[in-house]
Amino acid sequence: NAGVTQTPKFRVLKTGQSMTLLCAQDMNHEYMYWYRQDPGMGLRLIHYSVGEGTTAKGEVPDGYNVSRLKKQNFLLGLESAAPSQTSVYFCASRTGSPGELFFGEGSRLTVL
Amino acid sequence: DQQVKQNSPSLSVQEGRISILNCDYTNSMFDYFLWYKKYPAEGPTFLISISSIKDKNEDGRFTVFLNKSAKHLSLHIVPSQPGDSAVYFCAASARRIQGAQKLVFGQGTRLTINP
Q1: How far is B65 from chain A (nearest CA, A)?
Q2: Residue B75 sits at the chain A interface (C-beta within 8 Å)
Q3: What is the pLDDT of residues A67-95, one digit of tens each?
Q4: Interchain CB contact of B34 with A (< 8 Å)
Q5: pLDDT score at A88
Q6: What is the pLDDT of residue B109?
Q7: Contacts of B45 in chain A (CB under 8 A)
């Protein structure tokens, strides 16, 4: 039972490089989310999706783009990485009815 | 503007005693509250939730209390066990106006249970 899987788990980038984080869930969940966790800041919502083909901005969307082409996948892209994007990124999903989020294990990104 | 605040970055409790973690919120539209637990190098996992129509919800050793007038909730763990050592996040959503689409998280409190 995989649940929510994030790849890669670790990545080091140079300023200006681009990359994509992949989130995959096998629970047929409608809602998917990308959060970032920084010391003293808790979990902050970057972007989210309420269904296949939809995306919406969260609290800190600048510098990120997302796509939800398939229901089970939610991609987070950094077009031009900046040191301020050094963080741990968490993907989460849930069913359509109000309920708890299921999180992946996280992806640690370092931008030099 | 931090809508959900956990003002204690850390808490240390002796094994067997009660752990009380606190959370305050500012948005009066929040009507559903959750607690998550996070171990190092893992994603957060759901612990317990409470709707604004209740003031208490209990699940085993974990109880969440909600004081709507004070915009305050707390998580009680009794008795505390070494495996409870983790970071605890409080989260809130506004189901009536947003359909619980988004959860807003606090900064987290690191709980350490000492043997």
Answers
A1: 18
A2: no
A3: 999 999 999 999 999 999 999 999 999 98
A4: yes
A5: 97
A6: 97
A7: 103
Mean pLDDT by 10 residues, chain B (115 residues): 90 98 95 94 94 95 97 98 97 74 90 96
Contact call for B43 and A92, based on CB within 8 A:
yes
The 3-class secondary structure across B11-73, one letter per residue, is EEEECCCCEEEEEEECCCCCCEEEEEEECCCCCCEEEEEEECCCCEEEECCEEEEEECCCCEE
> Measured between CB atoms, does B41 come within 8 Å of chain A?
yes
How many CB atoms are located within 10 Å of the residue B96 CB? 12
Neighbouring-strand partners of residue A61: none
- List residues bridging with A111 in a β-sheet: A13
Question: Does A27 have pLDDT greater than 90?
Answer: yes
As a whole number of angstroms, the distance between CA B43 and CA B62 comes to: 20
Q: CB count, 10 Å around CB of B27? A: 14
